[in-house]
Each structure stands twice: as structure tokens, then as C-alpha cells.
Amino acid sequence: MADRIAEIWGSRTPYARDGLWPVRVDQALAGGLAEKDVDRWVQSACVLCSNGCACDIAVKDGAMVGIRGRAGDLVNHGRLGPKGLFASWQGVSHKDRLTSPLIRENGQLVECSWDTAMERIVGRSRQLLQERGPLSHGFYTSGQLFLEEYYALAVIGKAGIGTPHMDGNTRLCTATAAAALKETFGADGQPGAYQDIDHCEAIFLYGHNMAETQTVLWSRVLDRIAGPDRPLVVCVDPRDTEVARHADVHLAVKPGTNLALMHALVREVLHNGWEDGGYLGEHTLGLEDLRQTVEPWTAEAAAETCGVAAEDIRQAARIFGTSDRVLSTVLQGFYQSSQATAASCQVNNLHLLRGMLGRPGAGILQMNGQPTAQNNRECGADGDLPGFRNWENEDHIQDLARLWNVDPGIIPHWAPPTHALQIFRYAEQGSIEFLWVSATNPAVSMPELPRIRDILARPELFLVVQDLYLTETAQAADVVLPAAGWGEKTGTFTNANRTVHLSDKAVEPPGEARPDLEIFLDYSRRMDFRTREGEPLLRWTGPEEAFEAWKECSRGRPCDYTAISYERLRGGSGIPWPCNGENPDGRVRLYGDGVFPTAPEYCENYGHDLLTGAAIPPAEYQASAPASRAILRSAPYAPPHEEPDQEYPLQYTTGRTAYQFHTRTKTGRSKPLNAAAPKAWVEMAPEDAAAWGISEGDVVRVTSRRGKIEAPVRISGIRPGTVFAPFHYGYWDSSGEPGSHPTAANELTLTEWDPVSKQPVFKNAAVKVERIAGAAGPAPAPTTTASRPAGDARVPATAGGAEAEASEVLSPGPPPEFPGAISSGATGSDAATPDPTGGPR
Ligand SMILES: Nc1nc2c(c(=O)[nH]1)N[C@H]1C(S)=C(S)[C@@H](COP(=O)(O)OP(=O)(O)OC[C@H]3O[C@@H](n4cnc5c(=O)[nH]c(N)nc54)[C@H](O)[C@@H]3O)O[C@H]1N2
Ligand SMILES: Nc1nc2c(c(=O)[nH]1)N[C@H]1C(S)=C(S)[C@@H](COP(=O)(O)OP(=O)(O)OC[C@H]3O[C@@H](n4cnc5c(=O)[nH]c(N)nc54)[C@H](O)[C@@H]3O)O[C@H]1N2
Ligand code: SF4
Ligand SMILES: [Mo]
Fold first, then answer.
1. Sorting pLDDT into bands at 50, 70 and 90, what band is 821?
2. Which ligand 2 atom is at minimum distance from the Cα of 442?
3. Which homologous superfamily does the CATH classification assign to the domain defined by 175-367+597-631?
4. Fewest CB atoms within 10 A around its CB: which of 446, 578, 675, 809?
């Protein structure tokens, strides 16, 4: 049995550059069960991060009892990480699940029938639409529902109600990924692919702790590192993460200074003549502006601002500038930090400068975090228009109006969609009086929690919460709707490299819980939303019909799904979009031809000034004649808004640990995972701990201008001057009132967002630290991850326990050919089949 709690990445299966990543099938079954006890295996994919590992769910006596990775899938080649192995099925099969709708009566939430709950919602909704109009309604959804569910919600919001106030927690998560892709390439859509790990000579991880947050993808990197021709690794992160420990260059930047570093890297490439002039001339716009913006940022200047060594910056630039195949991945250390879109666009720019795009090993992954964030961005339940359509383009509005058979006037397009923090602002001010929250827990995950709690508690706000559990947010609701979870409903979703998987229903949901799609369709029916012809607006009876409708919506757009079907997704591997007549088996990489979706009539937006967020007027965009070229956008560096001062002398940043997922509604209910990271902690550098008279395990109070938290200190390898807190620890399993023993990292964060993507800044604020009690032992932080004690050798964490047992089976032969391998039309190495020869073009 493998201890996959201590051994996060499992055993190594080394492979060489341009080789195929070997298959290793990971499996976990409930304690005491053997494979022969399993009644059936049901195809799915894991929903505990954006990696989207394909799996089969083990079912026995109508219950989920385990999981196994799918050997033949192009994403994971059989592997699963600790969350996939344990939290997936344990996280939804818990006695705490909501089993009945609840409504608030005399201040208390009481059980009621679905009819009663839905009539209460519909009654309020109709009344407000009549009295106040559509702007009284707000919807705040997720990155964790299925494609079909987002599309239903998007149609309800845009063609039923007509409100621009709809967003997802994707705003907190990958709004910057989408923004950076739109600014540079004209539309959302990942240029690179996971297969680029197999071919790259160097991999750059920008603010991405892949080792803990996409453990299976990191296993692929570790297997390359363990093989011949290992790739060089460059890590940009203020903490001593597992990624940093494997890095050839670790740039431990001061939080909030990413853009200064990126300017220096770009400048080094230009000054050393490492750019590809031919590619730039033919395929890009904006080189002169970029050159001017970065010119002041010598390696020395950036070293001073970012607090790193100039020689390390030069070394990183040299690796980028002299390698032929670099893969870059970007995540929250960039997206949730200052000047997020500008810094992330500089990563795109580096690749354009070198013409390193769309060929094996040369790729960009503007990463996603949540498993289905991509689908929300495609389907438009985040406020964007479905199919990456442009709200400023009247033809795109007409398209949708035709598709849905509604008056174009109802589709909100008179202003940009309302972003999440603005939706909460309107609820605070009272103009939004009806807020429907699905599959997200803002009472723990939003910035500046004291304020968010006040908004959710406003008596004037009618709050609907749709979840698996009675979360901190649900506790404030007027109506709680019990949803069916993963394994209890059918639908599709798309991971960070555009690969679509089907997740089939394996078991019945508990009690009266219902699939989210059914709930949205029921609302639409009861509200009697109609088309121009008077037909019901949504007539789908199940997920497959919703998927078929979505395919029509995606036709001809960059995220074209028209050649994918439930049928094709069953049995084999996931399929990457675009998948259509031209790419019948899907396409692994985009933009190998240097043709970008920037044409004014096709693009998803006209771009922004990255410093101020001001939108570029349509006429100005047209006049710039992008002609399907990519756009090199940048902005001058500006320091973070809240910097340490005398009163709040330390810099505060937040993030994740491998063992917990977000607000822990699933991982906190999986015994082996929760035991590995049971309670909150904060991390400090040895120098700072000494200066403040703090020892390992001492309890401190960390205070910002917004609030405070209290937790034991782990003295870790973090950058001096910086304090880190994991954001997982809310209040559902703690005694006392929320905030009475505050542990949620967001008690301290500030209400501020990137001007372009509107993604909140979770990664820098100013705080002070005081010791309030002595240690009762070491801090309850994992020792296998970034939170391990400073300078310590690796110590295995808590063992898994007998709750469930994990195993690994290595496949002796080469990885199987994936189904759908027969490529017709798709070009060479871009076809969605692992290429056994694999070499660069
Ligand atoms: N185990 C686990 N895995 C997850 C999740 C989870 O909750 N738990 N969530 C999933 C989701 S939704 C997401 S979005 C992803 C997030 O995945 P990541 O982005 O990898 O995770 P984070 O820990 O939020 O942040 C990454 C790193 O940013 C660094 N950082 C902080 N400030 C700065 C800065 O100013 N500059 C730079 N360069 N780096 C900085 C932090 O030290 C941290 O190591 O993970 C996904 N996977
Ligand atoms: N300080 C700080 N704050 C952060 C971050 C950070 O790095 N630092 N990261 C941000 C990021 S990237 C993210 S993604 C957010 C995540 O923040 P949240 O979205 O609030 O986190 P989750 O705990 O994943 O909440 C998802 C909810 O959906 C429920 N759920 C799961 N599956 C289903 C389903 O099928 N149907 C329904 N109806 N409900 C379901 C779960 O029980 C859970 O309550 O947090 C953000 N907040
Ligand atoms: S890497 Fe992500 S998708 Fe894969 S098993 Fe782990 S949590 Fe699930
Ligand atoms: Mo996220």
C-alpha cells in the first residue's frame, strides 16, 4: 500500500525529453475493500483542481467507495493525487450533506419541500422584477459546476431576466488568465498543453506552486527531472515551495512586484538580441511600445524593487532567451497580486518575442485553478457572453438573440458585465436585493470578510444559497437549496488545457438533493421565461440536451465543441477543443500558425490600457489593424497600494496547502486529508520570528487594517519580511461565532482588484504580528510541503490511516495509443493524440 498522504506525488517513473510519460494507475478504495468487491466503475474526472484527471468511480451497494485513474487518458496517464484519491468520493459521501431545502422562518432555517422553497424564490424574484426591474437581481456562481449548468444559468440571466449582475468565483480565480489571453491573443483559450512538459527544455513557473496545487502535473515535471535531458526550472515565488526546491533559479520576489521582474526579463531578452525579429514583424503589433516600457528596468533596478539578486534575473533571462522550447505556467502569485494582467501579459510577450508558441515544448499555460473555471468563462455565467463573444460587438449580440430567439435588447450589453466585488457592493448599497449564490462560499473566500459577513447578513437582501453543505454562507441564507454533487449527476467539464471530460452519474444524491441543472431549469420553468415566439426559453430535459444546445452556441467560435458528443467522450480519453470539422479529434496546441483571433469582427474584446483598465474604443482598435496578429501589451510598473509601514511592518500573503481544498467542505470531511492539515497556521521567516521573539508553535495575532487572525506560527523558508497564511480555515467546524477565534486568512485581505481583470488582490497587504501565547507543540502545518520547517530535511507528514488505502500500479509497456488517434485534418503534432515521435517541428 502506498502512503499517498506522505508521498504526495507517488513513485517516480522517469522519462526522457520527447518521450512518452509512462502510465501509472493510482487507486484508492475504502478500508477493507478489494477490487473484486466493487460492483461497477463509472467514468468521470476529478473536480478538485483544474488539472482534470480522468478517473473511474468505484461503486458498491449504491455508494461511492473509491476511485482509480484512467490509464488511457491524455491528461493523467492513470495518476491521481491525494485530493483525487481521497477527497473526491469521501468529500461528497458525508453524513453532513444537505438533504432537504431550508427556508428561514422567524430567524431560523427550517426544512421544507422543494415546492415551498422554489415558490419562495420565484415569488420574491417576480415581485422584484416587477417593482425594481432586472438590476435588482444578482447571481454569484462558481468554477465547480458543469458546463451544462453554467450555460443554463447564463441563458436565464441574459435572455430570461436580462441582468448584467452575474459573475463566478472564477473572478477570484482565473479572471486574469482570461484577461491576459484576451489582451494578447484576442480571445480566451490556452495556447499550450500539458504535453509541452514532455518536450520542453525549460519550464518557468510564475507564482504557481504546482507541486501542491496540481500534484499530478507536478509528477509529470518530476518524472522529466528524474529522466535524461532534464528541463531547467525557474520559479518565481516568495516561499520555499517544492517547486523552488527543484529550481535552477528561484526568484523569491517581494509580493506585489512581479511586473518589475517581468520588465527586466523582457529587457534582457531584447538587449541580448534573443528576440526573433522575423516572427515579431509578421505576427505581432506593439514592439516599440514594449521596448520603451521596459527600458528603465535593468536587472539591477528590478533586483532592487523585487528584492532578488540581479545575477539571478540575468540567469533566468538567459535560460529563456537561449532555449528553443520553454513552457511557462502562470497562476495565483501573479493573478492575485498587483498589476496582475500586466504581469501575466509579459509572460505572453516573452513567448512572442522568441516566437515560442504552438509547437511541442514551446507553450504558455495561463493556468486555471478550479476544475470547471474554463466552462464558466466559455458559457458566460461569469458575465462574459457565451462562446467568447464580444459584448461591444452588435453582430455578436444579434447572433445570440437569434440562437435563443429573444429580443437582442434583453441581452445585457450596454456596459461591461458586473464583476463579483461590485455585485457585493451593490448588495451592500441595496440596489441588488436578490442574490443567488451557487457552489461557492464567499463568507470564507472573499476578501475583507468582516464586510462580506455584514453584506450577507443584511435583512434587506434575499439570499439563496445552493450547496452540498450548510456552509458559512448558507447559514446566512433565506433559502438553502441542497445540490447533488460530483458522482451524483451527469455533465461535462473542461480542464486548464482545454480538454473536455464527461462525468457520469454513479450514485443517487442523498435525500432530496437535486442536480444544479435541474434546479436552474425548474426556476426557469416556474418564472415562465419565454422566447419571442412564446415558447419556453429553456426546454432541455437533461444535461445531454443542454450540451447539444451549447455546441450550437460554440459553433464557429474559438471554443468550438461541435464535433464532441457524450458518445465520443465515453470510454476513451478526454478531447481538447476546438473540435470541429477542421479538427475532428480536437487540437492540442493553438497558434502554431501565428494566426490569432484578434480580427475586430471576431475577437472577444478590444483590449485595455493595462495600467488604468480603460477600455480601448472600438474605432481605435479597428484603426490599429491587428490583422490576426498578437498584441504586445504592457504597462509601467506601479508599487502595491498597501505597503508595510511603521504600524503594519510586515507583508502578508495567502494561498494553499496540498491537503486542503479551499474552504474545506470536501477535504475537511476526508479523514486522511484533514488529519494532514487539521488547523490554521501562519508562516514566518526565521529572521522575523527572532526579531519578534517568536518560537515555533507560538500563537500569534496577525492584524491588518481590516481585521485579525490568531494561529500558531510555523517558522518556514518564506522570504524575510513576509507572513503567509493558508486561506482554508473558516468556521464550519470550529466552535463559537464566526470571528470569535478568527482563523480565516481573508479577515485581513483588502478590497482591491486588478484594473483590467477585476480579480481581487489576495496576495499582498500590510500586517503586524504579536505573540499571544506560548507553544503547545510545533504548528499544525504539514512538513512535506512549502510549510515545512525552515532548513529542515523532508520529514514525512501524518500517515494516511486505515480509512482508505491507496495503491499504484506501474504499467510495464509504453503508454497506450489514445482512442481517437486516427487524425484526419488535424495537423501533425497538434492533433489531440500523444505523438509517439513527439519531436519538435
Ligand atoms: N491542494 C490544493 N490544490 C488546489 C486548490 C486548493 O485549494 N488546494 N485550489 C485550486 C485552485 S481554485 C487554484 S486557483 C489553484 C491555485 O494554485 P496556485 O496559484 O499554485 O496556489 P496559491 O497557493 O494560491 O499561490 C501560489 C503561490 O503564489 C505565491 N505568491 C504569493 N504572493 C506572490 C507574489 O506577489 N508574486 C509571486 N510571484 N508569487 C506570490 C505563494 O507563495 C504561493 O506559493 O490551485 C488549485 N489546486
Ligand atoms: N485569501 C485568499 N482568498 C482566496 C484565494 C487565495 O488564494 N487567498 N483564492 C481564491 C480562489 S482562486 C478561489 S477559486 C476561491 C474559492 O472559494 P470558494 O468557491 O468559496 O471555495 P469552495 O470551498 O471550493 O466553495 C465551493 C462550494 O461549492 C460547493 N459545491 C461543490 N460541488 C458542488 C456542486 O456540484 N453543486 C453545488 N451547488 N455546490 C457544490 C462546496 O460544498 C463549497 O461550499 O477562493 C478565493 N479566495
Ligand atoms: S491533480 Fe487535481 S484533478 Fe488531478 S487528482 Fe489531484 S486534485 Fe484531482
Ligand atoms: Mo481558484
1. very low
2. 20
3. Dimethylsulfoxide Reductase, domain 2 (3.40.228.10)
4. 809
Pocket probe for ligand 2: among 172, 505, 520, 753, the residue whose CB has the most ligand atoms within 8 Å is: 172
Beta pairing, strands 722-726 & 575-576: unpaired
Q: Is 788 helix (H, G, I), strand (E, B) or coil?
A: coil
Which residues, in sequence order, are bridge partners of residue 57? 42, 67
Q: Judge contact between 161 and 122, C-beta under 8 A.
A: no
pLDDT digits (tens, 9 = 90+) for 772-787: 999 999 999 999 999 9
Amino acid at 104: R
Distance 295 CA to ligand 1 centre (A): 30
Dist. CA 642–CA 447, nearest whole Å: 14
Choose which CATH entry (3.40.47.10, 3.40.190.10, 2.40.40.20, 1.10.3430.10) describes domain 650-792. 2.40.40.20
What gap in Å lies between CA 431 and CA 342, rounded to an integer? 32
Residue ranges lining ligand 2, Cβ < 6 Å: 143-145, 169, 172-173, 332, 336, 369-370, 438-442, 445, 466-469, 471, 483, 485, 516, 654-655, 662-663, 665, 727, 745-746, 749, 762
Cell 516600457 maps to which residue? 293
pTM of the complete model beyond 0.85: yes
CA R_g for the chain:
25
Q: Which residue among 142, 203, 331, 374 has the greatest number of ligand 1 atoms within 8 angstroms of its CB, and so is best to mutate?
A: 331
CA of 203 to the centre of ligand 1 (A): 17
- Contact between 572 and 585 under an 8 Å Cβ cutoff? The reply is no
Give the residues across from 385 on adjacent strands: 389
